[in-house]
Amino acid sequence: MIESVVSQSGFFFLITLFVIGAFGSLFFHRNDTCANVWSSFFALSGSLFGILFSSLALLGGQELSFVFGKTPFFILSFSLHIDMLSAFFLFAISLIAFFCSIYGFGYVKHFYGKYSIGALGFLYNILLGSLLLVVTSSNALFFLIAWELMSISSYFLVVYDRNDPKNVKAGSLYLIMTYVGTAFIILAFLLAYKYTASFDFAVLKANAHLIPSSVKDLIFIFAMIGFGTKAGIIPFHIWLPVAHPAAPSHVSAMMSGVMIKTGIYMMIRLFLDVLQPIPLWWGEAVLIIGAVSSLLGVLYAMTEHDIKRLLAYHSVENIGIILLGIGSAMTFYTLGMPTLALLGLIAGLFHTLNHAIFKSLLFLGAGSVIDQMHTKNMEEYGGLIKYMPVTAFTFLVGSMAISALPPLNGFFSEWLTYQALFQGITQLSFSLQWIFILATASLAFTGGLALTCFVKAFSAIFLARPRSVEVMHTKESSVPMQISMVVLASLTFIAGFFSGILTHMFEKIGQSFTIFHTTSSFVSVSSGQHLQSASGFSFVSAPGLFLLFGIVFLCVFLGTRLLVYRKQKIVCGNTWDCGTTLSPRMEITATGFARSIVLIFKNVLKPSIQQDVEYHDAESRYIPKSRAVTMRVENMYDTYFYRPLQKMIDGISLKSKVIQGGNVNVYISYIFLALIVALFIVL
Amino acid sequence: MVSPLCVGVVKKVKAHLQNRQGASIFQPYRDLWKLFHKDEVISKDASWIFLLSPFIVFSVTIIIGFCIPLFSSFGWSSFFGDTLVIIYTLALGTFFLALAGIDVGSVFGGFGSSREMTLSALAEGGFIFSLLTLSIIAGTTNTFGIASHTSFLNGQYLIPVLLAFVGFFIVLLAETARFPFDNPATHLELTMIHEAMILEYSGKRLALMEWASSNKLVIFFALGANLFFPVGLASDRHIGALFLGMLLLLCKLLCFSLVIALIESSMAKFRFFRLPDLLLASFIFNAVAIGLIH
Q1: Which residues of A465-498 are buried (b: 16+ CB within 10 A; e: fewer)?
Q2: pTM of the model
Q3: Which residue would you say has higher pLDDT here, A114 or A290?
Q4: Best residue in B141, B187, B197, B293 to probe A by mutation, most A CBs within 10 Å?
């Protein structure tokens, strides 16, 4: 059975499911219900088959490579190669796609009659299919085609809710950023092609030694910019907080949960596989980028009161954490410590999976709330826990997982990341040691700040009294939406509980890399599913933790219930109001909650307050009519990176205007000159 | 179980320093007993988060109690003694404490939570690094392992350990809501942090919350005493050694209580926005300590 599923025809079948789903829903575009059922069905069965395919491939451990059809160009071939790493990303994508599709089935109903559901189903299925192709293609040109399909389909999904001009603007920014990124990726591949004469990853890898080191550095920089833009590292993350809020929620869950991970996939593929051996500074650079991204990501998240923008900034943060793992892997391997390198890679991969699970869960939860409240502004929520209990509970679980609270899954991947960083501190020489100390510090502060941020988010959305009348009219979201959220929430527990098995799995994935063939990880999994580092430095046991937590909670709960004098009454009363009537305006707001952090980090965030007071009598200025306070946060990367860049481009454009005569003859002579110059260079 | 005693001692010493007689050191036990028998008043705005939080917060302190060396440097619980587990489990308690503070929608609870989360977020760096310093020296992140490593205070490691201890002590004051971070005796609107969050609790839930906070105090005392000065911990199951260990633990807790009481009597509470400087100083002490180990 394994052979029949994990085969060329199996994969072909997988892609075909999505293609049928895509074109079928386009065919039914006149009937919204039909289109929704059709596209959801094929997206569901496709992702279910994807889960089956990838888990069998992961368990079987064999590699698969084949070519689809023939092309007239010798450099382009539709060749696919599915190794363990690809299979893992296939698994993550299919898993999240499965839950997003269930959710989407219920969620898109409120688009009925407003927009074309057929188009949505078409684009959604194309996005899923292209995501699968991105992580399996083994030819750079074929990869770029899939990459473009992914970018274009996600662009159209971002601008799907097109009546809001803000969404269209967000889409444009996304499109620009993704094309700048793709341009750099193309440059990187072209540079590699120049020296290796191939676009095939396998050939590239075999001939990587032919690339001179300076060119290799250039490839690294270009690839980092290109894939970093997709992954959302700072300062190329600006599209994330704009594009995620614009897209429909199940699509933003897909984008934030797995699409940005394709950037991570390619970084792992290139830096740890294809381009090996790599110089030391690459790893250091990735570590520093990871540290900066995680810390700044969470700080900007603190300042947000738009629920989806907040989550988008947390994606930046988590990408940073993943990069801390991968950066330490790169550093350690170059320094000749493969066991530690494998540990870093395992931590990165584990966090990739975990982030996919809890981030999509949080986005789906946010989607349910937005669906009911019709606003993304957290200040207008409040008290939703009584109206949407299931959403509230799953959102709480997601918040705990993303804040790395034990015993949920986020804790174990961050624990592994910490182990990699700790070993860097203990085993490396002075200057390198400090990079690891700073990386650990950023991870530590990120953890604390993420916790604060999710206390803020959860309490502003679900706790206290409603802050607007809309809350009273909300009701729990539809059944498919609830199912996907509940199952995702239980997955955070399951992935935490089975962190030992998962770590072992990731070790096997790591060992499928050429550089790790004979290595075993620094942190090993012992028989009772405990994680243990090689020198006995540290030890954690997931089942043990679960057991301890369970027993103690139960004891305390029952103990208080049974032992304590039981005749007491519980009286329901008002919250203490100091003698006034409490109004929702007296509660703390999300902005107020985060204000002290924002002020503490004012050198980074540069908050500003602008007060506009309008007076009854402009002459006397004693009795104010209305008062508006605008608080904003300056974006550092905007002021110091994008503005100067824009100015430079403007300046160059102005200068180059000189040569535009407007006369056709002049242009023809330019072309002629260019031709001659080109000929001179070639000959 | 001894935790309310520490609170009692701190209060008693403070009272003496203020020329008062002060309540008996066993008063906190009587308070708890009283609270457990009282009726409860619960706000009608409260959700299950508010109802459940005291149990979670209290359980967390019990779990940590299993995870740290109290009077012996061995134990079946060395299974759980990873420092990261301890730090993040404590964060779990803080998380629910802060949520409960906001849940009832009171004016004070929200600000209490905001301040508490701000402080604990900033304290986390110092906390992890102070324990990491010890872990690196002892070669293990297991708290029991660290406690059985006794050569901290001699030779090359003296300065890093002392620096780390200063850093740790600052974190201790912040996490246990003591001066100069928070005043545990006040219910003044402008300054309270921990008290603001539990303001709406009453009856047995308040008792659990109070007990949990005194447990937390003992946890930090025990961490400070047994990790930084691991003297007299029972290293085998010999009954005499165990007894000695317990006795010494009591002495250590008494010492820490005295120091805290002295600090609280001789110092004013800091302005809120000066506290991050202190926490940052704690972090820098620890980072330097790690840098000095080699």
Answers
A1: bbbeeebeebeebbebbbbbbbebbebbeebbbb
A2: 0.91
A3: A290
A4: B141
